[in-house]
Amino acid sequence: MRDPAVQAAYAGLGTLQKFTDLFNSFNTAGNAWRGWTASVRGATFYKIGDNIPEHTSSLIQSMEENMRGGNNFLTSDAQKAELPSEPVRSTYFEQLMVAVLCDKNPGMSAVYAEAGTGKSVAILLAVAEVARTKTSDFFVVLQNDLAESLKNFLRLSEVSSAADIATSFFIALQERKVRLHLVFDNVLDSGVGGDKQKDILKALARGASEHGHQVVFTMQGKEAAESVAELNGDTTYMAELQDKSYGAYRWTKNETVQLIQRLSDGQQDANQILADSEIPDEIGRWRPRSTKLFIQFGRKPSRPLRSKQETVWVRQLQEDCMFRELHVVKKAFGRHLCSFFSVNTSPFCRHSTTFRVGWFICSHA
Asked: What domain of life (predicted)?
């Protein structure tokens, strides 16, 4: 079940852009990024000890030049190259990103979805749509290495200067009534690293929170997202509308059929592709990467491995399934054992009825 609040935020965009308009937007954003980074080659790199207000002024000048030209969106050519010629629209993760970008709360937030669910494409689609409606805001999407991304965007010779320059830049943007949306895609998939990285991220979070800006990290796992959300008190948080149920952002049958129609040569049976590329676990549904790999190479998806947080000794079915459990407490060998009997009756679960019987150590007195 998709969150009505997420769907409402997405519906607030109105009519979505046509594919040609979208790709014109991405081309403009890519050209703007090349101009932004080209201008830093040479003397305009900030070096420790240089004049911070002057460097901030050069960043503001570049931003204002872009906005005067009708562009308020920057992204690299590498990210733009990932876009399919005809992307599937309105996936749940795209809707989530629109809702997150429209959120007025400042600071640093985290969102996550499992690998292969089309996050990077959905992020670019969401940013392009929201940037079209919020023309006084400035949007930047960065990917891969955190240090290199910050050095390129803030024009730094050393990433150790990121905290000082970012804070100064945030203040200058606020003075001009421009809100920055800085999105890091797949930058911290393994979670927050050592102390130096934590210090930089805390400074970004404080600066964004105090001056009304938004920094968003998207990643693959819940544990990595929580390492950002729990980093610095009220300035860092999990996105309010994040769906925490496992596999929530997998694609529906209808979305996957659209993908198959755009990727297959028409000689393959769409129903067979659906059957063979469905994820083989309790949830099922599809990941676009897995479907694409099957179409191109005949590779079927494997059963996903759960993270430590998603695996327990007594296997639970998914969070969106409801259970009735009967517990009988017995004593044996000085410890309490519980026997349980479960019946899954959720209409949202892929399996209509599941029975389980077992034993586990419990804490009943």
From this structure: Eukaryota
In 10 A of CB 66, how many CB atoms?
21
Q: Are 107 and 235 in contact (CB under 8 A)?
A: yes
pLDDT value, residue 306: 63
Mean pLDDT along residues 255-271: 90
Q: Burial of 238 by CB count in 10 Å (0-12 exposed, 13-18 middle, 19+ buried)?
A: middle
Superfamily of domain 4-238: P-loop containing nucleotide triphosphate hydrolases (3.40.50.300)
Please identify which residue in the block is written with the tokens 């050069």: 58
The per-residue pLDDT of the chain, averaged, comes to 85
How many whole angstroms separate alpha carbon 170 and alpha carbon 138?
12
Helix (H, G, I), strand (E, B) or coil at 183: strand
**Which amino acid belongs to residue 50?**
D
pLDDT tens-digit map of 98-157? 999 999 999 999 999 999 999 999 999 999 999 999 999 999 999 989 999 999 999 999
Task: Give pLDDT tens digits for 308-327.
Answer: 555 442 344 444 444 433 33
According to DSSP, the β-strands at 138-143 and 73-75 are parallel
Q: Measure CA 246 to chain center.
A: 15
Q: Where are the domains of the chain?
A: 4-238, 253-297, 312-361
DSSP state of 325: E
With contact defined as beta carbons under 8 Å apart, do 184 and 120 qualify? no
